[in-house]
Design brief:
The protein is built from ten helices and seven strands. The protein has a seven-stranded mixed β-sheet. By secondary structure, the protein is of the alpha/beta class. α1 crosses α4.
Length: 249
């Protein structure tokens, strides 16, 4: 996994910045009831998406949490007094605290199904009856857009997807949550070019291909032979699923 303390300063610029945040926030808001209450944004990163959630729904009291100290500091500049460091597998809140919990680009980072189940369970625990949990799913698969870059990378080793949509649905159901909608949004600015993909390979962004692995340079060499080295291929489209804690009778 990347060191997000080291990534914090360059994170927004390297991940699509404001346009991607606007697309993500708009999709999330479309799955959250528009009423007063409390919202928790877990793995908030630099707060770029969270700030938009708070601005769009002034009747919501928004809290943001991230495990990375550097990410939390950056988020705190955007949301003063609303950000804390927290492990999403053990959230520091009582049961039934929030009317909505959102987690954009988190579950795919976890090390195994036990961690993914723990995060979903914690999100369900802190939801009030009638509350909604919203999460991205199938992030890695979304990056495969059928391009020539994807064809080159197809034989690479891959981690099992911890955010597979069917698995996340099972974890949610085990906690008593029921499906409550889905949508998707474009990862604006996230389309890969051959040259940028080589840079990502050599930085270790492909987790099972460390920079010192001979296969990394083999893939880099093949990517360097592709045409239009700086032309970005299509942006990924990220699925977003919502689950509701049933209201009490």
């Amino acid at each position: 996994m990347l060191d997000y303390d080291e990534e914090a300063d360059a994170y927004d610029a390297s991940r699509g910045g404001e346009p991607r945040a606007e697309a993500a926030a708009g999709a999330v808001l479309g799955l959250i009831p528009d009423r007063p209450g409390r919202l928790l944004d877990i793995a908030c990163g630099t707060g770029l998406v969270t700030r938009r959630l708070a601005a769009a729904r002034p009747a919501l009291r928004v809290t943001a949490a991230d495990l990375s100290a550097a990410m939390a500091r950056r988020a705190a500049h955007r949301l003063p007094g609303a950000v804390l460091r927290a492990d999403c597998r053990r959230l520091p809140f009582p049961d039934a605290t929030f009317d909505a919990v959102t987690g954009v680009w988190l579950l795919h980072l976890l090390s195994g199904p036990d961690e993914a189940r723990a995060v979903v369970a914690e999100c369900a625990r802190v939801l009030r009856p009638g509350g909604v949990y919203v999460t991205t799913v199938d992030k890695a698969a979304a990056h495969d857009v059928g391009s020539d870059i994807d064809a080159v990378l197809a034989p690479r080793p891959r981690r099992p997807a911890q955010d597979a949509a069917d698995a996340v649905a099972r974890y949610a159901a085990a906690e008593g949550l029921v499906p409550a909608g889905r949508t998707a949004f474009p990862g604006l600015g996230q389309g890969r070019s051959p040259r940028s993909t080589v840079t990502d390979l050599r930085r270790g962004w492909f987790t099972l291909l460390p920079p010192d692995d001979p296969r990394t340079e083999e893939f880099a060499t093949r990517l360097a032979r592709l045409p239009d080295q700086d032309r970005r291929r299509p942006d990924p489209v990220f699925p977003l699923h919502a689950f509701q804690k049933p209201p009490t009778a």
